[in-house]
Request: fold
Amino acid sequence: MDIKSLKTFVSVVNNKNFSAAARELHTVQPTVSRHISELEAKLGVKLFHRNTHQVELTEAGAIFFPEAFKIIANNKRVIELVNHAGNQKVATLNVGYLATASSFFLPDIIKSFAVSQPETTINLYEMSGKQQYDAITENKVDVIFCREQPLLADPRFSCVEVYSDSLVAVVPRCHPLAEEKEISIYDLRNDKFMMFHQTVWSDVFKHIVQLCKEYGFTPQMTYSPENMRHMATFVSSGLGVSIAPSCIQFVADKHCVCIPIKEMTLTMPLYMYTNKGNESDEVLNFVALCQKNRDHIRAMLS
Reply:
């Protein structure tokens, strides 16, 4: 039996008249009669008692009526579901991040976002600053967490400061200064330094070297690690000291100690960048969640 015949049957029941049903269905009475006859033939029963003025349901027709109504309603629901599925885009969120600078807070943010938007697929990409710049300008990621990107100081991009990190001395636990609550930059004058190469940390590198010179010494640079995890490992191994953002504490092991430097005023903010031309609902909701949690993130560093 087809849906058209069922709709005709329901219309005849509601109108109690073939002519009225034909008007409601924008057709002619012979078509209505044909649909009912075909339906009765398919079911093998009479559905109506007919007289001159109106029609009445037979016992079989009365039983069939609510079932016909359910079939029509279910058919409509199935069509709507299929159409919705066909038009629905798969929601995704692609996030690029600096590992050490983000690893202490990002997992909790991602977990909360996944709970609130379970239909969204989340992809995470650990990237260098250069890789992040390329990825967001080429729309390969939706959000990046990185240090300041001067090339993204552009109306096409949104920028939110997540937190501002202080620079601290990183020394082995066996170091004579390891128990100090705060030190002077001058206290490191006899140590070997490991810092990111000045091509990677240009402004920070220059600031640290200049500060050391103001206190009468030039730092002894011995090694340029690839990332902060490597830096923490080398310091823990007793191969030297470093000056790094305090977030290094989250990847440093028990053989490594972070100590504030009283003369150090330079800070290293972490920013969240998005491409304004690619701000989907998922991106906007994620940004809002990060902004909501900024105070908590900053408290984790204090």
Notes: The radius of gyration is 36 Å. The mean pLDDT is 90.
